[in-house]
Design a protein that fits this description.
three-stranded antiparallel β-sheet; PHB_depoly_PhaZ; Rossmann fold; PHB_depo_C; Polyhydroxyalkanoate depolymerase; nine-stranded mixed β-sheet
Length: 425
């Protein structure tokens, strides 16, 4: 009943939250003489803190309306080009001149680990000037009716394969954090089937390929608890009146509690500083609002996908052991021969320890040496692997260079030799 109590509490607080918001506007209104006094600013700051700590944060928008290509600013249009019950594929269509030619096509697979795909807004923004970008927009499981069926790890791999088929030849894929495992699995499945639409390259960033290496607090928690413990303690049914009523899920608010507790002191200090900036009215609070509007917006995961991921990735380490299964058949990373591999890690990553992502280089034994590269970014944590100034300045250019280097469109197919009395070869 914990999820139901959470919803009940949220509903019960609604009138108080609305009242606090109205009073905040009154105290912050420049026409109110009190708004220019320390008392008025303190009241407005206190009321905003109350409203923000009791609200549910909705799904943010990408809000990427334009990008700069060369010395020219072009408009960007966001459109859904492929859709399934648990995911939409978004395309950031750029108004580029025809004379520019084709930029590499990149599919970014966003993590399905509690936050929305908009967490990768900075990733998309940094790559847009140089590539045609698509991103997986995973749908909050509590918004998917039970009639749409289940969604597990096998379905995730299938979705990735379907999207690669939809996008077609010479598509490059980037997996950020959690999807590194299913994306590598999808590439292996496609390569083993000799699928001509397998990705030209895959970039794995801060992903838990082998969590036995430099285990973090997240990895250790999974090892200390049984799968039954996770099923009994974190899986709950979506309450009425949500569209996904009665669907078993791992609630987003529980995931958020875990995120917050890992760096609780940092979050408390940030909120204290936010309050003081509001009182001083020095213009600094906007950065805090932007960050936490994104950070506190969370989504539910289907129980079957969450539990299967915990078991296969964090408890059994199935992929690096060669034991991962997809639709009853073993996933063989050694089957990957034609997909270039770039792995990226952050030196201070406290979610996926250093070496966990690089392990993909070891298990994909048949990728030629000239088609693989590993990069360790100094002085960044998990978030800095895919966002921030160092990502824009040092990581994103390496990704674009790697993608362009291994574009299949740039490679001319062999010209058939016709031998008299024989056949083309």
């Amino acid at each position: 009943m914990f999820y139901q109590l959470y919803e009940l509490n949220h509903a019960a607080m609604a009138p108080f939250r609305a009242a606090a918001d109205i009073m905040r506007f009154a105290y912050a209104n420049p026409l109110n003489p009190f708004s220019h006094t320390p008392f008025g600013r303190t009241m407005a700051a206190s009321l905003e803190m109350f409203e923000r700590t009791t609200r549910r944060y909705g799904k943010p928008e990408f809000g990427l309306k334009q990008t700069t290509i060369g010395d020219r600013t072009v408009s960007v249009r966001e459109e859904v080009v492929w859709s399934r019950p648990f995911c939409n594929l978004l395309h950031f269509a750029r108004s580029v001149p025809a004379a520019r030619g084709n930029d590499p096509r990149i599919l970014i697979v966003a993590p399905m680990s509690g936050h929305y795909a908009t967490l990768l807004r900075g990733t998309v923004e940094a790559l847009l000037p140089s590539a045609d970008i698509y991103i997986t927009d995973w749908i909050d499981a509590r918004m998917v009716p039970m009639t749409e069926g289940t969604f597990d790890f096998d379905d995730y791999v299938d979705y990735v394969i379907e999207m690669l088929h939809f996008l077609g030849h010479d598509t490059h894929v980037i997996a950020v954090c959690q999807p590194s495992v299913p994306v590598l699995a999808a590439a292996a499945v496609m390569e083993e089937a000799r699928d001509p639409l397998s990705p030209a390259s895959m970039t794995l960033m801060g992903g838990p390929i082998d969590t036995r290496i430099n285990p973090t607090a997240v990895n250790k928690l999974a090892q200390e608890r049984s799968l039954q413990w996770f099923s009994d303690n974190v899986i709950m049914n979506v309450p009425w009146p949500q569209p996904g009523f009665m669907r078993p899920v791992y609630p987003g608010f529980l995931q958020l509690s875990g995120f917050m507790s890992m760096n609780l002191d940092r979050h408390l200090v940030a909120h204290k500083e936010f309050f003081m900036h509001l009182v001083k009215n020095d213009g600094e609070p906007e950065r805090h609002r932007d960050f936490y509007d994104e950070y506190l917006a969370v989504m539910d995961l289907t129980a079957e996908f969450y539990l299967q991921t915990v078991e296969e990735v964090f408890i059994k380490h199935s992929l690096p052991k060669g034991e991962l299964m997809h639709r009853g058949k073993r996933v063989d990373p050694a089957a990957i021969r034609n997909v270039a591999l770039l792995t990226v890690e952050g030196e201070n990553d406290d979610i996926s320890g250093v070496g966990q992502t690089k392990a993909a280089q070891t298990i994909c034994v048949n990728i030629p040496e000239d088609m693989r590269m590993h990069y360790l970014q100094p002085d960044v944590g998990h978030y800095g692997v895919f966002n921030g100034s160092r990502f824009r300045r040092e990581i994103a250019p390496r990704i674009i260079d790697f993608v362009r280097q291994h574009s299949r469109s740039a490679i001319k197919p062999p010209v058939p030799r016709v031998i008299k009395g024989g056949r083309a070869g």
